Amino acid sequence: MTVAVRSFAKINLGLYIGARRPDGFHDLRTVYQTIALHDIIRISTARGSGFEILCADPRVPLDSSNTCHRIAERVLQKIKPRSRVFIEIEKRLPVQGGLGAASSNAVATMLGIEKALRKRLSGPERLRVASQVGSDLPLFVVGGTVLGVGHGEEVYPLPDLPSLPLVVVTPNVGVSTPRAFADWDALADQSAPEIHRQLTAPPSSDKLFEVGCALSAWLTGTPDAGAPAVKSGGRVGSLLSDLVRAGIENDFERVVFSQIPELRDIKRALLRAGSKYASLSGSGSALYGLFESEKAAVKAAQALRKHGLKAKATRTLTRRECSKWAFVAGR
User: Fold this and answer.
1) Is-catalytic flag, 185?
2) Residues 27, 39, 136, 206: which is the catalytic one?
3) What is the CATH architecture assignment of 2-159?
């Protein structure tokens, strides 16, 4: 039997980079949001022992540098199977795209192994194993709309946002996250003392965290006293207006756009195509634009493709949808 799992992508609704910690990581504040674009992970078993990673994409490593390899080692040590496990990765998402593909692949691998071997880890065990492998993994264990703190590994589920239509553009260039952090540190070191303080100050008054709290209150029916009432059916439009007014940004844009001006141009193209809010996802290179309707998103994706960009219309996923659609039926 082969178990097939959808490995959903994510975007970042804002990303704040705080001080570099003694362990070398940076404090972060971000709101993760899973979306419908995905890879496929297939898990199968045979006689024998151990496991093997398979992937037709030459950019994907098959050794211990692959997050699927690292998580499979940990999961199999816990459940101690009596068969050999094969993990096949069908790539649809970009490599080094800022959509969390490698991290999502790893969590999908964990879920697929559990199902294929009919053994289940507890929720806390899943989160513990995921955080041991990488900072972005825990968000995919939770799914939906998630607040990320620490260096991204500490996650708190927020009330799910309404379904948001969006367009994702994946350029033909990858961005190394370690390089992006290094460029951020270099920018801080070269800045004037006051700017340096702003770039590295503790995030105690972090704007993104405050916006996350405000969105949570709004989604649970307790909007800010000064906010206008939201008309029925107008939640998407109101949310997008709130994001724009709050000035939520991705700090990586300050270094990545200067290194790769093409990405800044793509953000501008998304806005010209009608996006109400556009941003780099993670450290890039993927960018996304949020739209008020599915029709507007589809039209924008078509227009961007005519200009030679790899653009796909999709939508955000709730926590329940991530769980419901994780496994591909009939596989």
Assistant:
1) no
2) 136
3) 2-Layer Sandwich (3.30)
